[in-house]
Design brief:
The radius of gyration is 15 Å and the shape is globular. It is an alpha/beta fold. The protein is built from 4 helices and 3 strands. It has a domain of 86 residues: 3-Layer(aba) Sandwich (Rossmann fold). Strands 1-2-3 form a 3-stranded parallel beta sheet, sandwiched between helices.
Length: 127
Amino acid sequence: MDEKFYFVDLPGYGFSKMSKKEQEQVGKFIEQYLNIRQQISLIIFLVDIRHKPTANDKLMYNYIISSKIPFIILANKADKIAITKVEGVTKDLQKELNPIGDIPTLPFSAERKIYGDAVWEHIEQYI
């Protein structure tokens, strides 16, 4: 191996304006990619901390669980809510998506680059 690791950003389903047919094609692409790529060591599942998990979030969560690939949940856009609410909202997201609490659910902000140390601690376990 080349001693490198890569982040691969798969197509999202969030607020895109895809038709149902296009969404189905994207879903098949993601499924194929996750099944074919043997080198995947960790999935980083991004959700928006500002909103309750959507039906699509729950569907994707269940699919990731069924893939048997290790993953973490990143509650992104943590800079968009009050810092005093981040921990509570993150815990609420975890309860809704992962009531058992066995999947790490971490706040994150790509824009302000905060909460990254805890995220990297989890990622480094899989590199």
